[in-house]
Amino acid sequence: MLSGKVAVVTGAASGIGAAVVERFLHEGARVLAVDLTGQSLDRADLLAVEGDVADAETWRRIADMARTEFGRLDVLHSNASTVVRAPAHELSEDAWDRQLSVNLKATFLAVSACIGMLRESRGAVVLTSSVHAVVGIPWHPAYAAAKGGLVSLGRQLAVEYGPEVRVNTVLPGPILTPVWDGIGEEDRQRSVAATAAGRFGRPEEVAAAVTFLACAESSYVTGATLLVDGGWTAMKDSA
Ligand SMILES: NC(=O)c1ccc[n+]([C@@H]2O[C@H](COP(=O)([O-])OP(=O)(O)OC[C@H]3O[C@@H](n4cnc5c(N)ncnc54)[C@H](O)[C@@H]3O)[C@@H](O)[C@H]2O)c1
User: Fold this and answer.
1) Which terms are listed as keywords in the entry (predicted)?
2) I need a labelling partner for 20 at 20 to 30 A (CA). Which of 77, 146, 177, 217 fits?
3) First to last CA, the chain
């Protein structure tokens, strides 16, 4: 599905990003895998980039590497994120700024640095938002604001850079990754019970949706959002 393509994946060392890297490699892509720590990405079959996606310098480096190592860029998957759980009045300004930077501004920086190559290759951008973009969940004010912003930004970028570049956004629901490690069993079971699927999603199930949006199978899909949430938001609607 991605044979001969070059892809950048952020948040690539863990969870959904790691599953996307595996799937992209399986589909024949060459991958630049970006994360805060390059260590767990140190493998022969990909190019690891250690860096903070909220830093413009990281994106200059990524764009340079794509150009010099591969001479092209076809897919950008902006997926890294960070979360601080607290009600708005207890969230520090620094924590607010950091979450907006990593979870929203990073996509602006990424597209600014990579759009030239993406246009040349008639490429695809896939953003990872969240069901937090469409449903309020206590203790996530900055995270939700950033994820909601990503949905608008994705739509905006699709309009700005079409027809050359397609831009789409996935909205995962409860996916079993390390972000759930610190969350108690009762809260986990409540989230699972709130899905029509009756279980957590697997990172590979989000990777399948990202791969669809990244490849030519979705050639007439742009400016769209795709829920990958086991029916979590549908259950909310029916309540
Ligand atoms: N797991 C879920 O239930 C769920 C639900 C909805 C949305 N999401 C979204 O899916 C995406 C992936 O989440 P996950 O569950 O796989 O998380 P994860 O914590 O397993 O992986 C996130 C990765 O991003 C990296 N990262 C964090 N800040 C970074 C930065 N500034 N620069 C570079 N890398 C950075 C981390 O080091 C980590 O490897 C995120 O955008 C998250 O908001 C996850």
Assistant:
1) Oxidoreductase
2) 146
3) 39
- The confidence score (pLDDT) of residue 197 equals 98
Taking the CA of residue 203 as reference, the ligand 1 atom at the shortest distance is 16
Task: Report the SS3 class of residue 1.
Answer: coil
Q: Tokens 């086991």: give the residue.
A: 230
Q: Distance from the CA of 128 to the center of ligand 1, in angstroms?
A: 9
CA distances, 217 to each of 115, 206, 239 (Å): 21, 16, 34
Q: What is the DSSP string of 19-38?
A: HHHHHHHHTT-EEEEEES--
Q: Ligand 1: which of 8, 16, 84, 99 to mutate, judged by most atoms within 8 Å of the beta carbon?
A: 16
User: What is the residue with the minimal CA distance to atom 31 of ligand 1?
Assistant: 52
- The three-point CA angle 60-64-24 to 5° equals 100
Indicate the top mutation candidate among 84, 126, 140, 177 to test ligand 1's pocket, ranked by most ligand atoms within 8 A of CB.
177
Active-site residue, 143 included: yes
Instruction: Kindly list the protein residues whose Cβ atom lies closer than 6 A to any atom of ligand 1.
Output: 10-11, 13-17, 34-36, 52-54, 79-82, 102, 128, 130, 172, 174-175, 177-179
Which pLDDT score, from 0 to 100, does residue 120 have?
98
Per the listing, tokens 């259950």 go with: 235
Contact call for residues 102 and 80 (beta carbons, < 8 A): yes
**Residue 238: per-residue pLDDT:** 63
* CATH top-level class of 6-183+203-229: alpha beta
User: What parts of the chain have a pLDDT lower than 70?
Assistant: 237-239
- The structural domains of the chain, with segments of one domain joined by +, span 6-183+203-229
Distance (Å, whole) CA 192 – CA 201: 9
Structure tokens at 211: 């791969």
